[in-house]
Amino acid sequence: MLRARIVGTATATVSHPGIKGCRHLLCEVLDHEGGPTGRIVVAVDRLGAGAGSEVLVTADGEAACRGLAAGRAPLRNAVFGIIDSTGGGAS
Amino acid sequence: MKAGRVIGKVVPSRTVANLPAGSWLVINPFNREQYRDPWNAPLSGEPSVVAFDELGAGEGEIVGFVEGGEASWHFPAPAPVDTYVSVIFDRINYHD
Q: Which is the most buried residue in A48, B3, B8, B40, by most CB within 10 A?
């Protein structure tokens, strides 16, 4: 699982049938302090995450494909949570 | 999935059996500079990858590709493919 920030969107003209119509977001993986790492992954989004949102992205294809009609599709990354706030261990 | 630009094609003379019909593309994976200006930025310094393509992507096109086991698990029979072109992008909007 990755913590990431939405840094853009991508639209596809042609897709593998298993992920046709999916919304694709550019997600920049964040470091432990919430800073940018420069690593950008393209993830499918079904939650409607907006620009600048912090999200949780799965890096497991099995989880990413859950909910797709086709079952197994060539897909690894999907947004599965929108982060409200993050906190440290001791408060 | 990562995005990258198709910069070439590989044509094997012989392959193992059980491969579906498709082509082998050479892809230059993006880093931040290419996401900012996907169609005009110079190539990234990332190592190129060879990906299996069934969508018909051509040179210069921007594609999304998946690496690892997910690249071939939708094939009806096991195939030695670990990088697969899942989408062809026609627009990428990057904002810092």
A: B3
